[in-house]
Amino acid sequence: MANLRAGMVGIGSMGKNHVRNLRAIDGVDLVAIADASGKDPFGVAGDLPILPDVDAVIEAGVDYCVVAAPTKFHEEIGLKLAEAGVHALIEKPLAYDTASATRLAEAFESKGLIAAVGHIERYNPALQSLRKRLENGDLGEVYQVATRRQGPFPARIADVGVVKDLASHDIDLTAWVTQREFELVAARSIFKAGRAYEDMVSATCQLSGGLMSNHLVNWLTPSKERRTFVTGEKGMFVADTLTADLAFYSNAKVATVWDEIANFRGVAEGDVTRFAIPKPEPLRTEHETFRDAVLGKDSDIVTMAQGAKVVQVCEAMITSASTGEFVKIS
Q: What's the CATH class of domain 122-279+311-328?
């Protein structure tokens, strides 16, 4: 079987990593690269010319295309790919707003095309292991998910705030890991960097089945933190997606005989287990999964319908922060 012919639109700070993985995975040939700037700032194009736009990539005859252009261009680029019958993997967030994201999802679905969104955290080894353990009932009843995604401002971001750029990761991973749907959102945000977009958000949400989630996200913190805490009947899982480490803190089975300490502690700390798990690069796994989906194999891609739902929850956070009210997710 001939290799799949892949195209790439956008070779900035994220696009360069997509290019590296497109060249690394089996069964794929990267045949066309486009960037609106006409430049190759990271020197990744090799012997391929820098094409001006997605139209030129389509003309090159590609089976699928990866899009890492600024968010505001996702809909325009994606609709052209769908019309041309080209499968697509579009970076997150899927689109600038829910209406645009929905149009994209419907366009690809109507053509029977494989279409995915680059929510890379789904492919983090720590979270993939966590999802399996929750499915197996290792935590018992799940009570709460809490995420902390903090770090310095990324100069690459120009057209969205911290909610759509960063909180979108936590929205998707929370729904995916727990296999629940967001139902209710409350949020507060602040603007400190002199931009039109929020720099910090704190959100409290309700998911199906009464599950609670809390998300603290900002790009005002001098050091990076990417942690997910899932608390339940038997203890707590902690996933660090920067290091792809997963640990489990169990509730103690040994009674505390010192009554005052027992009352103070509430649930007692038990054993701590740090799991040894394989750690492939998440972006590599994402590309291999999408390739397999294009080939007709059973693959767990992030569908555009799921990506549109993430954008909807993001917009609910932004609305709640501006109105001071809870927002229901329809």
A: alpha beta
For residue 62 the two structure tokens come to: 């590609």
CA–CA dist 168, 305 (Å, integer): 14
Indicate if the alpha-carbon torsion angle 172, 173, 174, 176 is positive or negative: positive
Could you tell me how far CA 47 lies from the centroid of its own chain? 31
| Digit-coded pLDDT (tens) for 73-112 | 999 999 999 999 999 999 999 999 999 999 999 999 999 9
Strand-pair partners of 248: 237, 273
Fold match flag (4-121+283-299 vs 122-279+311-328): no
Burial 254-265 (b: 16+ CB within 10 A, else e): eeeeeeeeeeee
Q: Give the CA diameter of the chain.
A: 75
- The answer to whether 293 touches 114, Cβ cutoff 8 Å, is yes
Examine the pLDDT at 313 and tell me if it is beyond 90.
Answer: yes
For the entire predicted model, the pTM comes to 0.91
Residue 260 has pLDDT above 60, yes or no: no
Whether domain 4-121+283-299 has CATH 3.40.50.720: yes
Q: Which residue has the tokens 């494989």?
A: 114
CB 87 within 8 Å of CB 65: yes
Provide the pLDDT confidence category of residue 156 given band limits of 50, 70 and 90.
low
Domain ranges of the chain: 4-121+283-299, 122-279+311-328
- Residue 258 identity (one-letter amino acid): W
The secondary structure of 72-89 as a DSSP string is GGHHHHHHHHHHTT-EEE
DSSP 142-192: EEEEEEEEE-PPPTT--SS-HIIIIIHHHHHHHHHHHT--EEEEEEEEE--
